[in-house]
Structures are given as structure tokens and as C-alpha cells.
Structure of DNA-binding MarR family transcriptional regulator:
Amino acid sequence: MTKQQIQPTFANDTIELAESLRDVIGRFVRNVRTGAGTPTSAQSETLGLLDRNGPLSVAGMAQTRNVKHQSMRLVVAQLEGDGLVERLADPQDRRSQLVSITPKGKEALSSSRGARVDWIATALESELTEEERQVLRQSIGILAKLGEAGA
């Protein structure tokens, strides 16, 4: 017999806030990527993961990013074809391979991050008042706290 998971109950305003936050953040990220002309999320996230964590196996990346192994293999193949990642022998198991970000990949990652920062900075300056920017500065800590929840 398996234990039935108990679903927490939330106040309606909490559900509405959660949905609004999910929607707004999703649109914001898509608009930034489109406006800055940066790579797809899967490619960018994979390069960022390799940059932060160092060489990883395809299986390890798939597990960390919570995607299917086959999907991760396709992303790695695209990045490898563009010279942004390379395969290395795993020093722990010579039969296995690790994927590592190349200098060209680091440059591409830095460039896309810079383009996104520039797009956001332009939007901050052109669309928000100083008071709104101050509220946003204060909100960064709150969003960071939410981002660390359950981590």
C-alpha cells in the first residue's frame, strides 16, 4: 500500500499570486531572450550548467535539468556542432564521456548574458520610473528568497 500524498491547501489569493508570478516571469524571460536575440533556453541553460559545474555526463545534465536523456543528447549535439561544447574521456570511467564547455562556448555564454543584461537595462531605463526601479530593487531579495525555497 502506498502513502497518499497530501496536497496542501492554499488561500485563493495565494494561488492567484502564484499564477500571476509564473505568468509574468515566463513572459519576461521569453521577451528578454527574444529582444536580446539570445540562444534557446535549452542551449543557454546547458552552457550555464557546464560553466557553473564543470564537465558533466549527458545523463548527469539531463537529471540536473530534469529533462529526458534523449532531449539532452540533442541539445549537446547542437552545441557540439557549433563548437560550444566538447566531449572528454571521463577520468573515473574511461568508457564514459563528459561534456565540457569550450572557450568558444564560454564566449557565447558571456555574450548572450551581456545582451540580455543590456536589453533589461534599456527596458529599466525607458519603461520604469525611479520609484518603480527602487521597488524592483527591493523585490530582488524577495524573488531570491523564493528561488531558494526548497533548494
User: Anything to note?
Assistant: The chain has a mean pLDDT of 91. The longest helix spans residues 12-36. The two ends are 29 Å apart (CA to CA). The chain has one domain: 12-148.
